[in-house]
Amino acid sequence: MKPESITRVVSRYVAGTASRDIDESVLDEARKCLVDWVGVCLAAQGGEEARILRKVVTGWRSQGKAQMLGGGTATAGLAALYNGTLSHGLDFDDTHIPSVIHVSGPVWAAVLAAGMERGVDEQTMLRAFVTGFEVAARLGDGGIGVRLNQSGWHATPVLGRFGAASAVSAVWGLDEGRVSQALALCGTQASGMTVSFGTMGKPLHAGKSALDAVLSVELAEAGYEGAAGFLDEGGRYLATLLQDDAARFAPVAFDDGWEIRRNSFKPYAACQLAHAAITGAHRVRTRIAGRRIVRIDAYVHPLAITIAGKKDARTSTEGKFSTAFCIALALAGHAVTTGDFGEARLLDPALRDVASRVEMHAEDGIERTATRLQIELADGEVVVDDMKAAFGSIDNPMDWTALDAKFVALTEPLLGGAARELLQVLHRFGNTGSSAELFRLATEKTNAG
To answer: Distance between CA 37 and CA 32 in Å, rounded?
Structure first.
C-alpha cells in the first residue's frame, strides 16, 4: 500500500489543533521553550545585529498590532522577523537534538506575532506552538536535519519554517486545504546556509523563517496557491536541496508521543555540538589546574568538526563555533556564557594558547551529544574524560530550576527585580492577558534601564 501523502498528514494534523487533546504536561514543555526564548531574546537586544535590524524594520514604518521586544509594534511578519532574529542572536537558544533544529526561535516568534496581530487568546497560541514544534521536529527526524547541515543547508530555516507556518496556521484556524498551501508557499522560499555560521547571517535564518511563515499563511488564507504535495516525494523538496533523487522525508506519524519532550536547552552560549566537550572540560578542570597542557585531543561526531571546528576565533560569533576555544574557557573555570565571548576573553593569551593545542578528530559512531577528551600534560600524565551526554541534552537535561536560573542570569541585568516577575508570567502563560503582560514587562523595564 502506498504511504499516505506527508503533506496531507501534516496539514490534517495542523487543522485539527483546536480539537486535539494536549496534556498539561506537554503545554508545560511549551512554556519551558517560551521561558528560554524570552530570556535569550532579551539578552540579545544589545547586539549589533539587533540594532541594525531594528533600524531597518522601523524604517519600513509598517502598521500592525504585533509587538517587538524592546518596544514598538509592526505588522505580524516584521515583528516575527525581528523577534525571531533576536532569539538566535546569542546562539543560546534551545535545540531539538534529533533533528538539529532550533525550533523555538522561529516558531515562538511567529506564534506571538500572529496571535497579537489578531488578538488571539494565549491558550490558542500555546497549543499552536506545540503543533508547530511537532511538525518541524518530525520532518527533521531520521537523520534529515543532520544530513542537511552536513550538505551546507542550515536545518533550522530549511525545516523550522514548516513548524512556524504550521503554528501560524493553527493560530489563525486555517482548514486543511489552506494549511497545505501555506506549507508549499513557505517551503518554496527556503534558504539559510551553514557558511553563515559564525556571522550575523545565522540568526537572520530564524527571523526570516518566521517572516516567511506569516507571509505564507496570510497568502494562503487569501487564496494564493503553491505546489500541490510539496512535502511528498513528487514535490522533490529534499531531492532538490540535497541534489539526490532518492532523498525524501520519512513517513510522518503524530500518534507516537511528543517530540517536544525530547527538546534540549543550552546551559552554554555556544554551538550545541561543543557542549559535550565543555561539560567534559568542566568535569576535569580541577584535576589539571596549575599543570601545563601539552596537547588536547577531542574525539567528536563528524558534524562537530564541520559546524563547530573553527580555529583561531577572533570574534564572539566565531568563538561560539570554536570547540577548541570553548574547551579552553571551560578548563579555565569559565561558565561559557554570553560574557565569555567578549574581546577580553578572545584575546587572552592563556586561553588562546590552550585553544591552539586542541586537535579535533571525527569519530564515527559517537553521538552528537558526546565527546571524549584526552589531555596530555607536561608531567607525562594523560587525563581522559568520556562524556556520554552533555549537560542540557536529552539524557542529562536542564530542569525547571536550571532553566529559571539561566533566565534570571540573562535578564536580571536588564530588568532588575522585574526579571522574576516576568518569569512568573511566563510560567503561567496561557492565562488571559499573559502575552500583553510579557511584552509590557520586557519593554517597560528594558526602556527604563
So the answer is: 8
Q: What is the pLDDT of residues 299-335, one digit of tens each?
A: 999 989 988 999 899 998 899 999 999 999 999 999 9
- H or E element, residue 372: strand 371-377
- All CATH 3.30.1330.120 domain ranges in the chain, comma separated: 272-387
Query: What is the rounded distance in angstroms from the CA atom of residue 449 to the CA atom of residue 439?
Result: 15
Q: Which CATH class is domain 6-262?
A: mainly alpha
Amino acid at 415: L
d(CA 84, CA 420): 23
Measured from the Cβ of residue 167, the count of other Cβ atoms closer than 10 Å reads 36
Residue 437 grid coordinates:
503582560
DSSP string covering 243-267 = T-TT--PPP--SSS--GGGG-B--S
Spatial separation of the C-alpha atoms in residues 200 and 202, rounded to whole Å:
6
Convert the pLDDT of each residue in 126-175 to its tens digit: 999 999 999 999 999 999 999 999 999 999 999 999 999 999 999 999 99
**Nearest Cα to Cα of residue 113 among 100, 128, 135, 99:** 128
Residues 6+ apart with CB under 8 A from 47: 89, 90
Which CA distances in Å does 285 have to 282, 291, 322, 328, 332? 5, 10, 19, 10, 7
CATH code of 272-387, in short, is 3.30.1330.120
pTM of the predicted model as reported, rounded to 2 decimal places: 0.91
Contact 160, 109 (CB under 8 A): no
How do strand 293-300 and strand 358-362 relate by DSSP bridges? parallel
Cell of 64: 500592525
